[in-house]
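Incident log, structure service

09:12 report received: a user says their structure output differs between two submissions of the same chain.
09:20 pulled the input from the user's history:
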Amino acid sequence: MEMEGTNQTTVTEFVLLGLSGHPTLETIFFVLVLWMYLVILLGNGILIIATVYDSHLHTPMYFFLGNLSFLDICYTTSSVPLILDSFLTPRKTISFSGCTVQMFLSFAMGATECVLLSMMAFDRYVAICKPLRYPVIMSKGTYVSMATGSWITGGITSTVQTSLAMKLPFCGDNVINHFTCEILAVLKLACADILPNVISMTVADIFVLVFPVLFIFTSYVFILSTILRIPSAEGRRKAFSTCSAHLTVVIIFYGTIFFMYVKPKSKDSLGVTKEDLTDKFISLFYGVVTPMLNPLIYSLRNKDVKTAVKSLLGQKIFTK
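09:34 re-ran on a clean worker, output below:
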């Protein structure tokens, strides 16, 4: 729908709707999200310190794990304070520039994590399928370049998508039906054709979402094939234990994304309202619960990490 130039009002800020229609839920979720955010900072912070200071964890797998933990801290810090503020403020507003920065950071961290998880799958593939060549293939130069490439890919993808989105004219409704400046929610407010943005995002999703998923799937096909050929049950168990934590994180991460985009859409207005609420809860799970679970999964399912964390905490206690 075209609007006359005299009737256009340029949007300088956005209103984040969040859970404003559910005040009781806002109080409950403020406490829950705050608690989970503190767990994220503590859990991922301990993992980062452990991977840096414990010499036994100076390997490609734990280097990637340290990057994943730092990524989760960055991702949640770019959105959780905004979410918490929206629970406390009756009408939460965010400036146009603030919305742009928040959108860029969230999109960049999400895209980076998709690529980084595929790099971690390749590391597990080489470790299990080509163990004798592992030190040569996964040299320090290689795994540092892989991690750096993941961050660069996420940053470039986010720069392109955020720039295209925020160049659109916003001259009508400025209420974002979300906790944060989620790019799809913002695009719905544009008073211009967003087809180029949709096409651009589809292409980006193919590169940072579909390709990594296919790469991870292919890697695990070879990994499982190799594990099943190990003659002893103990050997199979030990081999699988080295990649079970990563596989669990991948299933939770991509499972949430898959459910978010493929669940059936409601037709009636009441169903749409419930659907909006469900979408917000799924978004919270993806943005807060998953980063909280990652360090717990790696700590509980990995003997080296458990030993390093216990040693680290023990040193801190006894030095006091």
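09:41 both user submissions now match this output. Likely a transient worker issue. Closing.
09:42 reviewer note: The longest strand covers residues 13-16. Confidence is low (pLDDT under 50) at residues 1-7, 266-272.
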